[in-house]
Amino acid sequence: MMLVGIFLFVCNDVMGKWLVATYSVGQVLLIRSLFALVLLAPMIRREGLRPILNPPRPGLQLLRIVFSTLEVAAFYWAVAYLPLADVVTFYLSGPIWVTALAGPLLGEKVGWRRWTAVLVGFAGVVIAMRPSQAAFGLPALTAVAGSLLFALLMITTRRLRQTSGVTLVTWQVLGALAFGAVAAPFHWVTPTPKDFLLLGMLGVVATVAHICVNRALALASAAVVVPYQYTQIAWAVLLGWLVFGDLPEAAVFAGSAVIVAAGLYIFLREQALARKAAAQDPS
């Protein structure tokens, strides 16, 4: 289920990259979100409107909506100018950002081993950006900013653990819908029937991917399924080459390897600390 979910996310990214070559980010988000809401409608009905309209900690909920909307917009904008594998590589640093920000924002203690992995992971980002080629351009910086926004989204989601998944996803979709409704009219291009269907499929595929990932986490522990998220870079390289003819440069491969290694170390270290804490708990 995790592998299917990750594959669907990359398929969603491929369709997004194809479509933003013709349509604005606002228009993509608008139509994508409308179709996602249609798919979510049965779940919203089952959940009930009251908990969705009155979520706990509304201020933090609003902040999460802002992070999620800007993160998606940053991804689609960056992927319009960069190869898919490059943008995915930058986004793989999201878990590293989470660890770096866990101390100041969540009050979690981060030891020297994980701090070392954080620094190594950020070194991988610099390698992937190819600074010797003056690649610190706006698209690359936007992708890095998007990965930071993704990390902030994860942190706020962690702070909202008491909120149901349907409520979180619904407001996430509504935020993107509102952004698209405001931005789309400025650069509106009437889509062909085929493109309209593809724009709608963005919302459907992303929603199904979320369902697959959530189901995987329900069937097995995070320690088993989370490492499979790094297959994302393999799919991005393969589909980017097949669909767009893009092959990443050696620096991107090297940087992604460093980022993945750092991210896996952080994850495994956190799992080891959790097991140690559980063993020491007298209860």
Describe this structure in words.
By secondary structure, this protein is an all-alpha fold. The protein contains 13 helices and no strands. It has helices spanning 2-19, 25-47, 49-53, 58-79, 84-91, 94-106, 112-129, 138-159, 165-183, 193-219, 222-225, 231-244, 250-280. The model has no long low-confidence stretch (mean pLDDT 85).
Compact description:
By secondary structure, the protein is mostly helical.
Task: Provide keyphrases for this structure.
283 residues, mainly alpha, 13 helices, globular, single chain
How many E-type strands?
0
Task: Report how far the terminal alpha carbons are from each other.
Answer: 34 Å
Helix proportion: over 70%
Which H/E pattern describes the elements? Answer: HHHHHHHHHHHHH
The main sheet comes to: none
Radius of gyration: 19 Å
* Uncertain stretches: none
Q: How many domains, as an integer?
A: 1
Helix count, DSSP H or I runs of 4 or more residues: 13
Describe the global form: globular
**Mean pLDDT score:** 85
- Approximately how much beta-strand content do the residues carry? under 5%
The assigned structural class equals mainly alpha
SSE layout and pairings?
Elements: H1 2-19, H2 25-47, H3 49-53, H4 58-79, H5 84-91, H6 94-106, H7 112-129, H8 138-159, H9 165-183, H10 193-219, H11 222-225, H12 231-244, H13 250-280
Helix pairs in contact: 1-10, 1-12, 2-9, 2-10, 4-8, 4-9, 5-8, 5-12, 5-13, 6-7, 6-8, 7-13
